[in-house]
## 1
Amino acid sequence: MPKVDLNRVSMPKQEPLVRARNFNEVALGYTAEQAMQEASRCIQCPKRPCVDGCPVEVDIPDFILAVREGNMPEAVKSLKSKNSLPGICGRVCPQETQCEAACSLSKKGAPIAIGRLERYVADWELGQGQMEKPQLAKPTGKRIAVVGSGPAGLTAAADLAKLGHEVTIFEALHTAGGVLMYGIPEFRMPKHVVQTEVDYVKYLGVEIRLDSVVGKIITVDELLENGYSAVFLGTGAGLPMFLNIPGENLNGVYSANEFLTRTNLMKAYLFPEYDTPLKLGRRVAVIGGGNVAMDSARCSLRLGAAEVYIVYRRSEVEMPARREEVENAQEEGIIFKYLTNPIQCLGNGRGLVAAMECIEMELGEPDASGRRRPIPKTGSEFIMEVDTVIVALGTTPNPLVPTTTQGLEVTNRGTVVADEETGQTRKLLVWAGGDVVTGAATVISAMGAGKRAAASIGATVGA
């Protein structure tokens, strides 16, 4: 048996002090030689545990073998047979807790860099300037409506199109892509990559109607009455959560949703080339410890802030953000204030935020999330002088579609009730998946939900 190589090939990336002042992609991607070297580490396990760890069941050993052999068209074909958005997944998927965690070499601390190889294959295809259309089933004559063009909606639409159905996506914004466009910064997810993946879905025959707010221009019931055989809801979770503390309505306090949407979708970072100004102070505090908090902090730095703080009420160990994103933020000079919780925002007398009063925390026993519960330390209050506050505490689904859809059941968190395996809701001929069902989660989990729902819709409406 050949000797196992435990040395993962590092991903080249911009130097921290350089990238902290530009919006270009941080990770630069593998060269052909690096990709083949990394692919050659794969031991091609007969049991293929990495596939079991992938929410969309990509044939991982197959596409990696094709990379190793230099057969890139076959690598693309194998990868895209299960995943219609590989350029996206290769960049933002938490492979370290999914396919790479299941990799046999992870027991030795050196799993195959599956995500990096996935990105390499997707970028190779993009560099060819053309996409190969997969074999589509014979047209069924059935029309399916997909509400939302984020990861769940795009995946469901692509799979339904492959089954031969006529698919229309209704997107509320003026650009397709959902959170991939409005939420994830350019330096982590270049928008031309997202647009390429959207174009691929359109290439499969899917129609995308922009500026189409379902619940306003048309309801789900009206879609079903107007000739659609089924509806898939992939509307995400775009309603921000707040701290509910005094002073939170001061100018200079943003939700991460607004801040990132203005920065990414509206391209405030290119002002005045784009007509979206974004007022940002010199000392910025970002509240939260997830990927959205990291994105907000790193955008703030690139937009010119002199000091940027991540304020998180637990310790670094409990942070839900990807380790890679935390490390990138630390390298770029973001200041982390752990075990700290804001209790009020203070104004300057003219309606602008000027400081936050915070309290130190200590960790108690684990709570329902499995993480140790933060407990305030009596008498530990202190003042942080900041002139911008960005609240990144998570999101919930927008209630527009549920409140305008008779018979659609929701939880007390505002999420749509749907079968975990099929995506079927309690309303006949309506399916749902992604963040609208689970609350804010990962891109790949939303894609998995879209994939399962598409298969269930196909089996229900038939050919």
## 2
Amino acid sequence: MRVLGIDCGSEFTGYGLVEQTSSGDLRYIACGTIKLSIRESLPDRLNQVYETLRAVIAEFHPDNVAIEDVFYAVNVKSALKLGQVRGVAMLAASSCRLKVAEYAPLSIKSAVVGYGKAEKSQVQHMVTTLLRLSAPPESPDAADALAIAICHLHTAGTLERQRT
């Protein structure tokens, strides 16, 4: 199974693709960061997220998409912008006929680090270790996206074992 993880943000949106082999090993496919200019209009930034994610899906053919669930933010304006980016990410996935799974930040950190309140640096370190990367992903947003994909693979594996 190949999963595209997406870490939505109004300035940086990370994406990461991870595959689980038939033997259960995790394999890194790709990752990156969509850098959004605050100088551009919001509709143009949302279009950039949409077009980039559609291109990533077309290039790497994931089986599923996983994104971080909404968390509560102090700044309402930031939360609304984040919600719009999340909506565009979901639209990009669903327009390609892919199912979208959502995970709480605590679940993602627990799945990857084993502790739901882990620091970003701990997530980055564990992603590097679990995927046997020679160096950490270049951006924390890409590392978070890879963590989201890993969380989905672990969760999907657990659900599959429970079904059988």
